[in-house]
Amino acid sequence: MHAIGKPVVLFKSGFVVCKDAPFLGASPDGKVIDAGCSEPYGLVEVKCPETKYRVTPLDACSDPKFCSHEVAGIPQLKHDHDYYAQIQGQLGVTQAKWCDFVIYTDKGLSIERIK
């Protein structure tokens, strides 16, 4: 996988319990190491939207109900969408600094680094 044009290494992730609040937990899709980043440890969250599987992630943004919208020709996760809250929760629980949000369809791939 390449995040924002750079090679990264992916690892499986299981359920993670928050160190500061052990009653909280999260299950990110994976952990990522981006050696070219000043903060190399992050997460990955992958979505394969069934209703948009036959179009590119950018074309899917034309649907106002889709999780992302187009910003300067690139899909960007809406901050008021449940997926954004999910990622922020995962970042809080794991204490990671960023998460690569991936939209995968039969027609393309979109990767956005969420901090």
Automatic annotation (TrEMBL):
Q: Which residues form a coiled coil?
A: none
Q: Which domain of life is it from?
A: Eukaryota
Q: Which CDD domains match?
A: PDDEXK_lambda_exonuclease-like
> Which BP terms in the Gene Ontology apply to this protein?
DNA repair
Q: Please report the stretch or stretches of sequence annotated as the YqaJ viral recombinase domain.
A: 14-96
Which PANTHER family has this protein been placed in?
Answer: EXONUCLEASE, PHAGE-TYPE/RECB, C-TERMINAL DOMAIN-CONTAINING PROTEIN, PTHR46609:SF7
What's the protein called, per UniProt? Answer: DNA polymerase
Organism, per UniProt?
Paramuricea clavata
